[in-house]
Amino acid sequence: MAKNSAPRRRGGDLGFRAGTGFFAALVVMLVGGIAFVLWRESRLSIAKFGFDFWRTKTWDPVSGEFGALPFIWGTLYSSFLALLISTPVALGIAIFLSELSPRMLRTPLAFLTELLAAIPSIVYGLWGVFVLVPLVRKLELLAPAWARSLPLFSGPPLGVGMLSAALILAVMIIPFTSSVAREVLKAVPATQREAAYALGATRWEAIQVTMRYGRTGIIGAVILGLGRAIGETMAVTMLIGNSPRITWSLFAPQYTMAAVLANEFTEAADDLYLSALVEIGLVLFAITLLISAASRFLIWSVNREVKASAPMAAPAPEAT
Amino acid sequence: MNMKIRLKTALRGLSAALLVGAPVAAQTVQINGAGATFPFPIYSKWFDEYHKQRPNVEINYQSIGSGGGIRQLSNETVFFGASDGPMTNDQLAGAPGAILHFPTVLGGVAPSYNIPGVTASLKFTGAVLAEIYLGKITKWNDPAIVKLNPGVALPSLDIAAVHRSDGSGTNYIFCDYLSKVYPEFKKRVGVATSVNWPVGVGGKGNEGVAGLVKQTPGAIGYVELIYAIQNNISYGDVQNHDGRFVRASLETVTEAAAGAAKAMPPDFRVSITNAPGANAYPISSFTWMLFYESPKDKKRAKVMVDFFKWALTDGQKYCAELGYAPLPKEVVALEAKALGKIKL
User: Fold this and answer.
1) Is there a contact between A268 and B67 if contact means CB atoms under 8 Å apart?
2) Out of B67, B87, B197, whose CB is closest to A266?
3) Percent helix / strand / coil, chain B, rounded to 5
4) Which residues of B touch A243 (CB under 8 A)?
5) Which among B160, B189, B211 has CB closest to A158?
6) ∠ Cα B272 B273 B279 (to 5°)
7) CA neighbor of B245 nearest in space, from B88, B135, B62, B121
8) Which of A134, A281, A302, B35 could form a disulfide with B82 if both were Cys (CB 3.0 to 4.6 A apart)?
9) H or E stretch including B172?
10) B-chain residue closest to A239, CA distance
């Protein structure tokens, strides 16, 4: 019995190694395959427009002129706005749940937050159209004249537009960011908090120490939310107003890359048009990759900084 | 190498098994089609009713959009296609064989609006609609609108022009009409299922446009007539070719097709927007089924032609209950003749 088990275990190990290795390789092949197909199907548009595709503003299926800049702008602007709104809320939820909440509330609150992630995006979209948009419109009507003259709030109060889209995106990514951030904070060793308290830190200071310890993970949680915001399609399509323009105005209807794909792909019969739409997909893919790489770099540089400074450098406020 | 041979043998065995199975399956004829979403309800009703009469005929239709339908037909992955706009000459040249267009039913597009305090039905001309969608008319009390609607107290409210953001036949019909009556629209925007709108917001689908119009005071939008009728959306009258203001309805849309029948080109690739006729509604259009002139699969072709004859005659009676305008008799007669062109 004991004699047999050794080779069998080795065989199992080998099989397991091969199996998991295969799955890991599958991911690489999938990503490579997607990139290849996107490139192959958009060759016509790449050959015709070249780099101009990234920097021209006209999107005119009738005359066959295609430029992705307004869509790139809309995608990045809406995603970063959503991040700006959602990050404080999501981190607040995560800190409350892991550090402050009474034990009784913890499970139901965490469950409800995660439930937000399970709602289909079409439901968010419909809720947005019927509830959020009228509210945003009322809010926009309240904006005083001096505010309306600022580029950030210019344009007629339509309700649909960048603000509504960013708000719905923020709601949609909060559960992702907060769940991951909560897990990160939970994983911070209790000794960190105990040490902070032992040094006389207040609760707020102890939480700062915890956050500092887990900051790579927290950045990762925020980036996860960003990734979701960039690719979100349905709810954004229903709320952003689908109008390709480049403006800082939160009230103005704009457009995103995912939304133009959802809107125009089915009816694109012309080869160049279809190719340009696929190239939008390629651009979206490239931007997602760039952001992933940038976040890796951010995490790496933060880690290096943490290692360089003292491992337990709680920002001690000056006692007065 | 060895592996390859083994695979080949296996495939050969498989195909032999399929061939043996074939005579059993031969009794039912399956035909696949794909294309426009607008006529999907009537097409599926037709295929369903026809299947009840001829249980051995199964026609499957996927409403993937006109563009997709044309593409799949050109790639010969479906037997027939369907489109809300006729194929362009380039598209026809790109297909592996000659493709014929056959009108099936009619659709119309109606302008819907939301002006607080205004309950009267407004009158529009093509020029006014074009100027609104070009951003030249920006207020509801613009002299051009006031002149058309004497007695209606129009407020000094910003117009929010709502368009369809998704590629659709509705866009095609609407732009086709505006391009015909307003040359500048043709030059600046043009005609297609998706266009570059100079102003306004885009809603996805009829429901998106209708939702935006309903919620935005000062909004104007355009929706499929069927959608407007089924959802009790009020809409305005549009001035037709003969100068009369006509309300969109199944009758006035059919009237537009009858007006156009006199000058019907032999390939049926005709736009019936702004058609002549006293009661012709100007924003109307055919929707087409697309067949190859000499289909490779003669057996399926014969079944399809039989079906189409039925759809042109008995099938038209299902139009009204689903809210489609039926084809006028003149067009049906022309099509019955044209079906003979398909080489069986």
Assistant:
1) yes
2) B67
3) 45, 20, 35
4) 197, 200-202
5) B160
6) 90
7) B121
8) B35
9) helix B169-181
10) B203
Cβ contacts of residue B235 below 8 Å, gap of 6+? B110, B111, B112, B113, B121, B223, B228, B247, B248
Tokens of B89: 């000459």
**Residue B186's pLDDT band (cuts 50, 70, 90):** very high
Instruction: Kindly list the domain boundaries of chain A, sorted by start residue.
Output: 73-255
pLDDT at A4 over 90: no
The mean predicted confidence, pLDDT, of chain A is 88
Q: A159, B215: Cβ pair inside 8 Å?
A: yes
**Nearest residue to B157 (alpha-carbon basis) of B102, B103, B220:** B220
Contacts of A274 in chain B (CB under 8 A): 67, 71
A292: pLDDT confidence band, cut at 50, 70 and 90? confident
DSSP letter at B270 equals -
Asked if B59 contacts B52 with a C-beta cutoff of 8 angstroms, the reply is no
Q: In the predicted model, what is the mean pLDDT of residues A108-131?
A: 90
Lowest-pLDDT range of A118-122, B53-57, B64-68, B329-333: B64-68
Confidence (pLDDT) at A150: 86
Residue A318's pLDDT band, with cuts at 50, 70 and 90, is very low
> How far apart are the C-alpha atoms of B340 and B344, rounded to whole Å?
9
Chain B residues with CB within 8 Å of chain A CB: 37, 64-68, 70-71, 87, 90-91, 94, 158, 160, 165-168, 189-197, 200-204, 208, 211-212, 215-216
Q: Do A267 and B68 touch (CB under 8 A)?
A: yes
pTM of the full predicted structure?
0.82
Give me the sign of the Cα torsion angle B140, B144, B149, B152: positive
Tokens of B182: 């307003």
Q: Which residues of A touch B215 (CB under 8 A)?
A: 129, 133-134, 137, 159
Complex prediction ipTM: 0.77
Mean pLDDT confidence for A262-284:
89
CB contact under 8 A, B65 and A243: no
A133 in contact with chain B, both atoms CB, cutoff 8 A: yes
- Tell me: the pLDDT tens digits for B61-111? 998 888 888 989 999 999 999 998 888 888 899 889 999 999 999 989 999
Which CATH code, of 3.40.50.150, 3.10.310.30, 1.10.3720.10, 1.10.760.10, is assigned to A73-255? Answer: 1.10.3720.10
User: Parallel, antiparallel, or unpaired for β B123-124 and B99-114?
Assistant: unpaired
- Residue A63: its chain B contacts at CB < 8 A? 190
| Residue-level pLDDT at B282 | 95
Residue B313 has pLDDT above 60, yes or no: yes
Task: Quote the minimal CA–CA distance from B88 to chain A in Å.
Answer: 9
> Residue B13 — pLDDT band, cuts 50, 70, 90?
very low
DSSP-derived letter for residue B325 is B
Range in A4-18, A34-48, A147-161 with the lowest mean pLDDT: A4-18
Q: Per the CB < 8 Å rule, is A253 touching B168? A: no
* Selection from B134, B118, B142, B115 nearest residue B214 by Cα: B115
The two three-digit tokens of residue A198, written as one number: 């032992």
